[in-house]
Amino acid sequence: MKRPSMRATMHIARCALAGLALAALAPAAPAQATRWRGDFLYFADAAVFTDCASGQRWPVAMAGDFVALQEAYMRWQGAPKTPLLANVDGHIEVREPMEGPPREHLVVERFVSVQPGTTCESLLSVGLPTAPFQR
After folding, report:
1. Which of 8-12, 45-49, 88-92, 102-106 has the lowest mean pLDDT?
2. CA 86, CA 112: separation in Å to the nearest integer?
3. What own/partner pairs with CB < 8 Å and gap ≥ 24 does 67-76 have?
4. 68 domain-assigned
5. Residue 4 covered by a domain
């Protein structure tokens, strides 16, 4: 069997590198939605979600079903700057914030519900599960 020429080998290598570069530029497959339960807080055009199960905190992207979550918060919040327990379907995605480098955000795909007068802390204090309920 004849070996490929140096020129053919270089052509194959360049094509492989070009394919890798195109794959890196292609949009990633959409993340699978997960049910989240956590404290939602909205103040001065900034939204933050703290997951009850892990305590991890993310800014909330103002996309998807964010407006429904925001409206429920505005209706049911106890007082300004007060967290409200929310249940949403969404995923974590790296996005460009208004300022600073790209970082993870919670993208709300579907608003499920809020639980007025309840927070992650209040669930823990009475021994209720903090993990999201299943559909």
Report:
1. 8-12
2. 8
3. 68/108, 68/111, 69/40, 69/108, 69/111, 69/114, 70/42, 72/111, 72/113, 72/114, 73/40, 73/41, 73/42, 73/114, 74/42, 76/114, 76/116
4. yes
5. no
Separation of alpha carbons 75 and 86, rounded Å: 13
Whether the pLDDT of residue 22 is over 70: the answer is no
**Rounded to whole angstroms, how far apart are CA atoms 126 and 121?**
9
Q: What is the pLDDT of residue 120?
A: 94
**39-89 residue pLDDT tens:** 999 998 899 999 999 999 999 999 999 999 999 999 999 888 999 999 999
pTM of the model as a whole: 0.72
Q: How many domains does the chain have?
A: 1
Q: Give the CATH number for residue 79.
A: 2.40.50.540
Complete DSSP assignment for 36-92:
EEEEEEEETTEEEEEETTT--EEEBPS-TTHHHHHHHHHHH-SSTT--EEEEEEEEE
User: 90 is in which domain, residue-wise?
Assistant: 34-125
**Domain for residue 99, yes or no?**
yes
